[in-house]
Amino acid sequence: MPGPVGAIDVQRYEGEVLSSAKDLLVTEEPLEIRLGHGPLGERNEFRLSVTMRTPGHDEELTRGFLFTEGLITDPAQLVRVVHCEDVKPEERGNVVRAELHPDLEVDPARWQRNFYTTSSCGVCGKSSIDAVHVRCATKPADWGRVDPALITALPDRMRAAQTVFKHTGGIHAAALFNREGELLILREDVGRHNAVDKVIGAALAGRPATNNRLLLVSGRAGFELVQKCVVAGIPLMAAVGAPSTLAVQLAKDSGLTLIGFLRGERFNIYAGAGTAKS
């Protein structure tokens, strides 16, 4: 399986001198997710999706993806995730099969329709938000007042733990913190949604509570990232970049505290706790 970083030959221009050099780039490879389902002795396989990701933590990515997209509602519904060995040589390491619990009633046709709808943010903003609310048994807990000193310290803590970013400068990150600002889980990926799914998948596998945690992402806060937080029950999401209008609307409707433009000593609160601690 390819590693998260690869060396590439480049021609480097510096100080009016052109020379040959090596550059480290983040690896981008496809991951095909297949689902095994049905009663024991009558298992069927359904090819669900292909996502471009950075190799590593594929089980967490798959677990988080299935949960945040509503294909499973309980971690116990996923028995295991394994890399498929009976594939073409060029596909080895890039195909996984997620084995669902035999008692789980499934409808592959509904999965496919639901997946393609949610991935494209639905027909309109309202239908997208309604679909998220249907999948969520409860809303995220109220975070309460925001502590500026805690929030503004998080990006540096996340950046210090980003090993792949240090080598490549070209990868997204997502990090789960507790209320004291302690880093619990960090994952990096070429896709921002994959990084979030890996964090949520790791949390589900370890079964730590997500309802008293906050998630920080290195880029913008789009609708799909906010919906993943809502489905996972994470009460506060902070982003280095800006949110979208639909992301803010979903956050407000769901009770999620949403922070954006977290840079240096400043940030904006777009939804949730409207009053920061002084």
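Next protein, fold it too.
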Amino acid sequence: MRVALIHDWLTGMRGGEKALEDLCALFPEAELFTLVHRPGSTSALIEGRPVHRSPIQALPLSLSHYRHYLPLFPTAVEFFDLDRFDLVVSCSHCVAKSVVVPPRARHLCYCLTPMRYAWDQFDAYFGPDRVGAVGSALLRPVLGHLARWDRATAGRVHRYLAISQYVARRIRLYYNRESTVVYPPVDTEFYTPADTAAGATPPGTGGYLVVSALVPYKRIDLAIGAAHRAGVPLTIVGDGPERPRLEALATGVPGITFTGRLPDVDLRARYQAATALLFPGEEDFGIVPLEAQAMGCPVVALGRGGALETVVDGETGLLFDAPTEPAMAEALTRATTVAWDRARIRAHAERFGRTRFLTEMTTIVDETLRAPGTERW
């Protein structure tokens, strides 16, 4: 069986790329297709595959400013020639789900989310306070067209898989399609608590932690304000276009540290030492809270979206109700008073491990290949 894996772009190792890595393990002979690939930016398993890139790769500054070519994405993703493949698996948060597959092939979409900025989060990405009044006005019809195209091409997928119940509801709302929930995998073998007797940093001694791409919807500004209000130290791991604004926001605020991206080994040590991980935005799922919990680290999260499916309030973390600094600051203060059972937190994360993901995906692939060729789920 010839398998093609489709991913929107390969420019770093975030949650979607970690799911793609396990899909590569499941399909060891699969070829990869992506709009843009920055060599060396992903794992060795992904980098070792044949990678087919779209024409956007050849455009000026495509590796650093590929998002500026967003209006070209629909044409670019339809450029891929998939005629020789029997199974196409797209890992999609933008346009990957809309590839054109041959009539005999089956197309499974592992949907990270329908496009946030085209559907319900335009202002968070392209509002007047982000790109200026003129830029926002010019981009609104462009994103409106992209949303209509996204809906019109939803039928190209034979079966949708959602990363959470939250995303399943979005798929139903925007694509009018049902989906099967398969939670993304967390590497519980790598993210495992270290032995403090052997010299590892004791848990709870490193202050609060954020691990995130620095983009608007992640609400890192909320975490900075809440930490300042609560008077607690905060380390922010990650990078992205919001970093200059966030660093300016944190100027003069004591105890706020930006590290940029860190190697996985260093990140694991940060989880080990953290008082708690902060998860301030409304997320589709969020693999980072599970990485933290696999280390026995509690999570303080906004009680919306995927966090409702990964954080057990009062047991593996605390959920706060409103995306406001006072609500989050109160949760930070309360987290220091809880006697966390770190072994219990770890046990909860183990339910989301790689073995479970690979078993569920194998079953679904077999079901899809056995179904009549015209069937849509």
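About the second fold: The domain at 3-185+354-370 is CATH 3.40.50 (Rossmann fold).
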